Amino acid sequence: MSVNKEVKRITTHTLRQMKASKEKIAMLTAYDFSFARIFDAAGIDVLLVGDSASNVMAGHETTLPITLDQMIYHASSVVRGAQRALVVVDLPFGSYQGDSLEALRSAVRIMKETGAHAIKLEGGEEILDSVQRIISAGIPVMGHLGLTPQSIYKFGTYTVRAREKAEAEKLRKDALLLQNAGCFAIVLEKIPALLAGEVSESLEIPSIGIGAGNGCDGQVLVMHDMLGINTEFRPRFLRTYLELHTEITSAIRHYIGDVRSGDFPSASEQY
């Protein structure tokens, strides 16, 4: 989709200006053209093509099974629907850990094959080589600290991270390492609000929170959660803005009834 000349694209520089002026950043996940176009027209700042597609689009229990090719498919669909928003794409599990050259190849594929504007990686010091190599190639990187779902089998639980002093100190250190490596923003997931606020204050780059309180520079939610499509996931940090599962179910049942009764299509709905 061609970009409307009157629409000013959100960039990584825009996000930094928003932090400086204390204007909060609104970010949502998206996985297809139709929703991306709706969110973009509504004024969302950042669209994240999350590896949560593994859960909400493909029905997997974790984010681990989704492949790089599948992420590229979803990302290219979202990019075609976004004229204004910055589009960030998750590097999926196995496409960057432990091999910075593989990480760069994965990031390059996403940028070349989707037209996205940035990529996101989970982790701190342990993935620093990959972050630095990707950024050195001119690809913007968003970091992700706290609860990192790709490491769920290491954690063994989705509970709040960095409650203990040692883990909190590592998170503070990792945030600065990612900033110094050149990341343009960092997602802070499911950590104590006090710690998230402290980390956000210490950074020159924006923090985007999910379950990390209102001290972050912006917020992100999974679209299926905030729209009430997913009814099984209702954590404390989630605010549900619609109950689409109920609305859609009602509409489908109405349609079935109209078909069965012969009410649809009516005389005015046929040729």
Descriptive tags:
globular; TIM Barrel; single chain; 271 residues; alpha/beta; eight-stranded parallel barrel
Topology:
Layout: H1 12-20, E1 25-29, H2 33-42, E2 46-49, H3 53-56, H4 68-81, E3 86-90, H5 100-114, E4 118-120, H6 128-136, E5 141-146, H7 152-155, H8 165-181, E6 185-189, H9 193-202, E7 207-210, E8 218-221, H10 223-226, H11 244-261
Parallel strand pairs: 1-2, 1-8, 2-3, 3-4, 4-5, 5-6, 6-7, 7-8
Helix pairs in contact: 2-4, 4-5, 5-6
What's this, in brief?
The chain has one domain: TIM Barrel (Alpha-Beta Barrel).
Could you please describe the fold and organization of this structure?
It is a single chain. With 271 residues, this protein is an alpha/beta fold. It has a single domain (12-226), classed as Phosphoenolpyruvate-binding domains (TIM Barrel, Alpha-Beta Barrel). Helix content is 42%, strand content 13%. The chain is built from 11 helices and 8 strands. The protein has helices spanning 12-20, 33-42, 53-56, 68-81, 100-114, 128-136, 152-155, 165-181, 193-202, 223-226, 244-261; strands at 25-29, 46-49, 86-90, 118-120, 141-146, 185-189, 207-210, 218-221. It has an 8-stranded parallel barrel, surrounded by 7 helices. Helix 2 packs across helix 4 (68-81) and helix 4 (68-81) packs parallel to helix 5 (100-114). The longest helix has 18 residues, at 244-261. The chain starts with 11 loop residues before the first helix and ends in a 10-residue tail after the last helix. The model has no long low-confidence stretch (mean pLDDT 94).
